Amino acid sequence: MKASINWLKEFVAFSNPPEEIAEMLTMTGLEVEDVEGRDGDTIIEVNVTPNRGDCLSIIGIAREISAILSIPLKEHSLHIETHPLYIPFNVNIENPELCNRYAACIVEGVEVRPSPDWLARRLEEHDIRPVNNIVDITNYVLLEMGQPLHAFDLDRLSGDMISVRRAGKEMEFITLDGVKRDIKENDLMIWDGSKPIAIAGVMGGMNSEVTNSTKNIIIESAAFCPTSIRKTARRLKLKTEASYRFERGIDIEAVTRALKRAVYMITMDVGTSKPYELIDVYPLPYNPTIIDLSLNRIKDKIGIDVIEDEVEDILLRLGFKTKNIPNKLRVIVPSYRGDVLEEIDLIEEVARIKGYGNIRSEMPLIKLSFEPPDKKEQFIGEIKQCMSMLGYSEVINYS
Hints:
Layout: E1 2-4, H1 5-9, H2 18-27, E2 31-38, E3 41-47, H3 58-69, E4 90-93, E5 99-108, H4 117-125, H5 133-145, E6 149-153, E7 161-166, E8 171-174, E9 180-183, E10 188-191, E11 196-199, E12 203-204, E13 216-224, H6 226-235, H7 241-248, H8 255-269, E14 274-275, E15 279-281, E16 290-294, H9 295-302, H10 308-317, E17 321-325, E18 328-332, H11 343-354, H12 375-389
Parallel strand pairs: 4-7
Antiparallel strand pairs: 1-3, 2-3, 5-13, 5-14, 5-15, 6-13, 7-10, 8-9, 10-11, 11-12, 16-18, 17-18
């Protein structure tokens, strides 16, 4: 993930040199592989691990810098003036286990043209080729917020509806790159009233693409199942910026925020455009993960004496919400941190922000147990010993 220092500064008001920012990110778990100066800006390249999909965006990396430096995170205004829909436009999700949220916004009166120089340059700095102002704004928001978006030419759709469902049968579908793709019956597709118009979460179709003659659009912002997107993208050998993020999980609560951001930018670029009220289909609303965190367990695991106020401050800086309960903190995990599932994950968050260098190098205390060995573990041990005697080796990898 490449990130412009100037872009990051729009969210966090830091004055540290880029090299210092790179070192701090690396020391807290986001390894910076490269720092490159470019025309009054500096681009850092961050190696984002698969479990940290929240950092595949400018605001995600800015959030980390905000927590490390204890500087407030700024957010853009998302206020847009919308108009009531004058036609009944329906969104239908037939497979909610594969698409748990689908939001859309119709914008009329757009003017498709080349993007302003600042926008085109910013995309190029992040290895995305500028196309036109509408497509470029959706890609800009993808980089900024980590939420893939897609714009369809509304006048090329039929039936005043969008449906999210499996293909249902094998078919051929021409994607935006002009390639004819072999679609299988279980691939998730986006349909209008009569035809497929996109491979969900991977790439749109040529039959609904935005062109220079487009006047009216509908913008999609959705949350697709990572496993489903991964299977389809890998089988088709089609890796896109969108599929890369969907495979790692996006923030389902940011679906409409990203859509509003794109609509706002379009109305700023094309002052005569007319956005309509958002459509938001959300079958199973997000239920946050709640974890009880013991201060004693933090000390047992990382050997650092911490006070409750310090732990609470670190978690709040990272976007967690906390509540004091007897001898513990009850922690509400933010929707963008799908990797935090257990108490030990919270302990890791405290350790990395406090600084791994502050952890003492010593052998951990081990509580001796005189209980009889577990029969299952004993059986597994015997199997391992037997296989070893036969010449086999055990391999333990990272996955």
